[in-house]
Structures are given as structure tokens and as C-alpha cells.
Task: structure prediction
Amino acid sequence: MRSPALRHVLTHLVTPLLMCLGMGLAYMGAFVTPEPNHLPVAVVGTGPETKVFAQTVKDKAGDKLDVRTVASRAEAVDLLKSRDITGAYVLSAKTPELVVATAASDMGAVAVEKVFAPVADRQGVPLKVTDVAPPVSDDPTGQGLFFLLIALSIGSYASVAALGAAGAGLALRIRALLAVGVSAVVSVIGAALAGPVFHLAHHDLASVWAMSWLYSAGILFLGVGLHTFLKRWTTLAMMVLFVMLNFTSSGGLFRPELQNGFFGTLHAFWNGAGFVEGIRSLLYFDRDGLSGNVGTLVAWLVIGLLVTAVAGAVERARARRAVREEPVSEPEPEPQPVTEEAEAEEELEESVAV
Result:
């Protein structure tokens, strides 16, 4: 290719085109056709009739449902509040009841109702639906936490682009300190959105802030460290890690039981899932499982710190090598002004990230 300018443009077009492909594959693969995939449900009752009914439901559903029987409604409620099941059907000839916890997953509750509503219809009786863990009235679908995740993520990974491109001349320890400061600001914004602005969190706002900081700091440190090795490809890497794979596996819209096995597997250890499920546990489920979710966020922060530490060692080695290879007899060249091309590349990296 004869034109360096055209080659430069085409090289930079690779990133947005790969983003287009990746976003399409991730979002459409995760969200377009949600179907139950080993969705855990319970049938409440004792005796052979209950077991026969549960087995009949399982046989008809196949791999879509995992059906168990429990002896009492109270036991079913405990399983719902620990998020071990998505719904429980209480057998009754006159007043069958479906017990759900929509704060765990509004779409999961809808899916379970679609399974059991026809059963009541065949009996010719209305199905009573009881929600034992409803979300707050300010967030009726419970999906506000997913959009909070998006806000925190954008503030974090877009800041990585700014720190990497505009801050490339700063020592890594300065960029790391900036990452601490930026994550604090991002988490304060997140807490403000969750609390006084949109009222998603009616209590434990300080804990929401702390989890927001853990989440944001993990992204920022990982991004700052990766920039040493990936340079302008860092933006694409951050989009893959914290948008394409992160949003889709977080459980904010569809829990893993309504997705295929790939996203369900990621949900077990990805940081977005740790954040969303941790906040749900904090706000709606008496902190059940919270320690594991916090552990996930801490693990991602530790990985980010390790990557940043390795990046610091590499940058120091590069600086020492540059000093050794610099000719001592030649006069030091005068500093050159930043070229328009370099400024455009910095602007491109930041704008693409946003």
C-alpha cells in the first residue's frame, strides 16, 4: 500500500470493526433467545402425588428445568432467598400457588410462571403468585443494578484509555495513584446514582460504595497494567473483558439459568456478576452469599495489581536498557513537539473507548 496515511487509517479501523463483530456475537448470543437451561424449580408437597407431578414436569421440560421436591412452603422460601431455586409451585386442588423472588431475577420469575401457569389453567383454577423478595418500587424490574454496572464500567475502562494515552509520559506509579483516585470518583458517582439520585439502594449505601470501588479499581489497575504491553490495542481488550463478556454474563438482565452454558460458566467468576449478585445479596437477601461475591471482586483487584506490578518491572527494565543503548558522545536531541498524528491517535483511543 503506497499511501502511509491510508494505511494508518485502515489500521485504526480494525479496532471498531472487531468491536462491531464482538458486540454482535456477545449481545445477540447472550440476550436474543433467552431460554431456560437447567432452571432450578421446586414442587412443594409430600407423598407420591407430589413426586409424580414433579417427575411429569421434569419429563416434559427435559434439560430446561431442574425439578426438586420440598416438604414445606417455608423450606421453599428459604431456597428462594438463598437463590438456590427460581420458583416453587405449591400443589393444591383449589388454590395452587407459585412462590418467586423477583429481586433475584424478574425474567426468571416470568419464565417460571410460564411453566406453571398452564398447570393451573388445566385445573380450571387461578394461580396465585407470591413474591417473597420484591425489588424496591423505584426499581420495579430489578434491572437498575445492571445499568449501574454499565455506568461504573464505562467510567472505569474509558479512564484506562485516558491514563494510557494521555498519561503515557508519566511514571507507572503516578498512573497507579491516578487509578486509585479515579476509581474513588467513579465509585462515589455510582453510590450517588444508586442512592440519592435513583433510590435503588434504600440502605447499606456505604457498602454499595465499597463494592463499587472494588469493581472499578480492579478494572483500572488491570487496564493500566495491560497498556504497557498492548498499547493502542488496550481499548479493544478492555471492551472484550468488561463489555462483551462482562455485561452478558453479569446476570443483570438474564441469570445464567436463562442463558447458554458459556455465559453461565462466566457468571461463576466474572467481576460484573460478582458486583451485581453482591449488590442483590446486600440489598434484598440479607447478605446471603455476599462474602463470595466480594471475594470475586477482590480477586480481580489482586490480578489487576499483579499485572500493574509486572508492567512496572518491564517499564523499568526498558528504561535501563534505553539508557545503556543511548550513545554518550552525541549531544542530547532537543525535545520535539507532539505531532498532530500522535495527538489524533490519543484522541482516537479515548473516543473509541467511550
Q: What stands out?
A: The mean pLDDT is 89.
